[in-house]
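call fold(seq) -> tokens
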Amino acid sequence: MLCRKRVWPGWFFLFVMFAGSIFGITWFSIKLYKSAQKQQEKSEFILNRTPPPITPPKST
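ret:
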């Protein structure tokens, strides 16, 4: 009777690959989210600041 005695290394490898991919997706998505929030704050700051007063042209 032929049977495999070592099946768990394959399952362990698949589990590690799956867990690593989930960790990587989560980590990069959090990093991207924080970067987007920082860029949004910068954009809002630029759009909300008051423009400089318009000076009349100098007459010569």
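The radius of gyration is 29 Å.
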